[in-house]
Design a protein that fits this description.
The chain is an alpha/beta fold and 224 residues long. The chain has eight helices and eleven strands. It has helices at residues 20-32, 64-71, 96-100, 105-108, 116-127, 139-145, 166-173, 206-223; strands at 4-8, 36-41, 49-51, 56-58, 76-78, 89-92, 132-135, 150-151, 177-178, 187-189, 194-197. It comes from Cisticola juncidis. This is GAL3B protein.
């Protein structure tokens, strides 16, 4: 039987939604491994909409589910309908939408809250001992909800290659163990069944990000 994996998106676009290359890599690697992806997103307004040419917010308003449907080619479900019983694993790609729409990390950092719907889904998979895969910034969701867990967002020393390395410090302040890793690697927390990879937390070639996401997907499926 093919493994059924929920993929939760946060919109469409790196600055206000899911990072499209990460989301696509997750879906490609799931397909390659013979798994069945079921894509979900919360039916809610985005925090804001960013013009991806100018890098500036615009006055328009968009819906997270409607925007996520662009990546899912329309084959998407409301996150409120997700039933953990019929699924084998959960994967959440990164992008600023994780920090703006699925949580308030973008504005509150480690003092953030996770949206009730997203929290409920994460806790359901965790309680059912089903693996959770996390890319880029999405490990902050696990760090907030599961103190003592192990995740990676790459490296903990800021430099040109690792511009977001201070995130690792915030994760540690939440009581999480951060494990340094390279962009092509994934870290497995066997106790919590969490698998994380840094993806675009690193200024790396696209194929290296793709390879790291692939490693994460394979580890998730191995645990499922």
């Amino acid at each position: 039987m093919a493994k059924r994996v929920a993929v939760v998106l946060a919109g469409c676009g790196v600055f206000d939604g899911s990072e499209i290359h990460e989301a696509s890599a997750v879906l490609v690697h799931l397909s390659r491994e013979g798994a069945q992806a079921e894509v979900y997103a919360p039916n809610m307004p985005q925090m804001h909409v960013v013009d991806h040419v100018k890098g500036q917010p615009t006055p328009e308003q968009r819906n997270v589910l409607v925007e996520s449907a662009r990546i899912a080619r329309g084959n998407i479900k409301d996150l409120a309908t997700l039933d953990v019983k019929g699924l084998d694993a959960l994967i959440i790609p990164g992008g600023f939408g994780v920090a703006k729409n699925l949580s308030t990390w973008a504005t509150q950092g480690k003092e953030c809250s996770v949206s009730k719907e997203v929290e409920g889904v994460l806790r359901a998979f965790h309680a059912a001992h089903k693996p959770i895969g996390l890319c880029c910034i999405s490990p902050v969701l696990a760090a907030k909800l599961f103190p003592g867990c192990e995740v990676t967002v790459g490296q903990d020393t800021e430099c040109e290659q690792w511009p977001y390395a201070k995130t690792a410090e915030a994760l540690q302040e939440l009581g999480c163990r951060h494990v340094n890793s390279q962009v092509t690697e994934a870290h497995v927390d066997p106790r919590n069944l969490l698998v994380s990879t840094s993806a675009f937390m690193c200024n790396a070639p696209l194929h290296h990000v793709h390879d790291g996401v692939g490693k994460m997907v394979r580890e998730v499926l191995r645990l499922a």
